[in-house]
Amino acid sequence: MLKILGKITSINVRKVLWTCEEIGLDYLQEDYGSGFASTETDAFRALNPNAMVPVLIDGDFVLWESNAICRYLVRKAGRDDLLPGDPQECANVERWMDWQASEFNNAWRYVFPALGRKNPDFNDPERIAAGIKEWNHHIAILNQQLQRTGAWVAGETFTLADVVLGLSVNRWKMTPFDRPSFPAIEAWFARLNQRPAFLRHGNNGML
To answer: Where in the numbering of this chain does the GST N-terminal domain appear (predicted)?
Structure first.
């Protein structure tokens, strides 16, 4: 059975768990990270030298980086609907996945610890304001894309792009600050809420 190491409060662990449930893969999840089993051990670093979660163990195969894990699981299950086999269609999905990891998530690196986690080390009002502006800018980009597709992030069907961005947008919606109206985002989020796996691992009250 697949083993997933990482605490369920982690946004990156939750995207992997959501993916597993979307494709019907059985898994065993073990809590690692702050407040649980330590990732700062030689044994864990042998699995992931970054000492971060999640880590996937599939027999003798070990994989880290949450988006890579999601892609691996979908390909393992043969789910071309979530990650198409056609090179151009696949690249379109992966483009939005990479954007989520590199651009979108970087936008909240200061403002989320400040407002979402109430971390006293993140208390610069100017940086918080700049972070909110940048975060909303990236939400606007996604809103424009959803206006174009009229459905899901990468096109007419639900894909892995919706999984990884669904978790990120849920965090944006739950962090306490004034947000502008983005109708396409709201309509897409309502569609996500019709998926039981998203309610369990995405919009479940966790930031």
So the answer is: 1-81
